[in-house]
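Translate sequence into structure tokens.
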Amino acid sequence: MFIGFLLFLVVAIMAFWLLTFIISFLPYWIGAWFIESYKNKDLVEELE
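Result follows.
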């Protein structure tokens, strides 16, 4: 019973820190996507 509780605690803590890590990088990923799409749009306009 105690081992099951410890296993649940470890999994819950790992999930919490993984979600925190992903959420902290989400604004960077969104910003980089917008910058890259803007650069690609400018390159396509230069080629035409």
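Note: The chain has a mean pLDDT of 88.
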